[in-house]
């Protein structure tokens, strides 16, 4: 059996900080949550949204899945984990922002790209990431001669756009966006540099939002 002492020690440290050093926040959160944003992120253990953004408890309503994907609006008898989380955040918590956070080195996108070669990814993963099949097909069509690494990076960004478009198929999301009550954001995090880009709808490009951390290289070239 694996040793989970590290996690238990972490709970103790959290208790000391949360209940001992900041009891006001703890008492406030007991009465309910009022997060500003719904963040749709990847399950990847290296990309923890709350840690990346240095958030307090209660700041973010977080939904994580393989490759940070949002399926289109569909009403049937299937189980709808993503859609129910989205509905709760938008219709009940009334968040003002939805952030789709993609990242470099995404295993889910790698599985999606591999499917074009006939590679199957597990029992459930392949079908799930196929939500972003249009992103994969676009990249392969427009970048046929690029390296697999560059194709994957491009697909990671294109998949964010698929999720943003799918968000707008939910009627209560579309309505709130139209009224200016809700804003959608597409962010892309580079794990190797820490740089964060956002999708600019006006230019159609992922532009630098937060530069990468390079204290000894002030003129370092930004990653793509």
Q: Would you kindly provide a written description of the structure presented here, covering whatever features stand out?
A:
- The N and C termini lie far apart (43 Å).
- With 224 residues, the protein is α/β, with parallel strands linked by helices.
- The chain is globular.
- The chain folds into 2 domains: 1-32, no CATH class; 33-210, Carbonic anhydrase (Beta-carbonic Anhydrase, Chain A, 3-Layer(aba) Sandwich).
- Mean pLDDT is 93; it is low at 218-222.
- The protein contains 9 helices and 6 strands.
- Helices cover 42% and strands 17% of the residues.
- The protein has a 6-stranded mixed beta sheet with strand order 2-1-3-4-5-6, covered by helices on one side.
> Which fold does the CATH topology of the largest domain refer to?
Beta-carbonic Anhydrase, Chain A
Number of strands: 6
Strand order of the largest sheet: 2-1-3-4-5-6
Q: Look at the structure and name the CATH superfamily of the largest domain.
A: Carbonic anhydrase
Low-pLDDT stretches: 218-222
User: Over all CA atoms, what is the radius of gyration?
Assistant: 19 Å
Distance between the termini: 43 Å
- CATH architecture annotation of the largest domain: 3-Layer(aba) Sandwich
Structurally, how many domains make up the residues?
A: 2
The overall pLDDT, averaged over residues, is 93
Short description:
This protein has 224 residues and is α/β, with parallel strands linked by helices. Helix content is 42%, strand content 17%.
């Amino acid at each position: 059996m694996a040793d989970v002492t590290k996690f238990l020690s972490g709970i103790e440290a959290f208790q000391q900080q949360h209940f001992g050093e900041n009891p006001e926040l703890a008492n406030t959160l007991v009465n309910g949550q009022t997060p500003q944003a719904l963040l749709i992120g990847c399950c990847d253990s290296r990309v923890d949204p709350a840690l990346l953004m240095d958030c307090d408890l209660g700041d973010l309503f977080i939904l994580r899945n393989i490759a940070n994907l949002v399926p289109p609006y569909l009403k049937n008898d299937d189980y709808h984990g993503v859609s129910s989380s989205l509905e709760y955040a938008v219709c009940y918590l009334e968040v003002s922002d939805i952030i789709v956070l993609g990242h470099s080195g995404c295993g889910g996108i790698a599985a999606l790209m591999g499917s074009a070669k006939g590679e199957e990814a597990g029992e459930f993963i392949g079908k799930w990431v196929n939500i972003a099949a249009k992103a994969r097909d676009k990249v392969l069509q427009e970048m046929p001669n690029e390296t697999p690494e560059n194709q994957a990076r491009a697909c990671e960004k294109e998949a964010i756009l698929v999720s943003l478009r799918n968000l707008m198929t939910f009627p209560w999301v579309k309505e709130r966006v139209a009224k200016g009550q809700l804003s959608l954001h597409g962010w892309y995090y580079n794990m190797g540099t820490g740089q964060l880009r956002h999708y600019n709808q006006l230019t159609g490009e992922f532009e630098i939002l937060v530069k990468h951390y390079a204290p000894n290289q002030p003129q370092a070239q930004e990653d793509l």
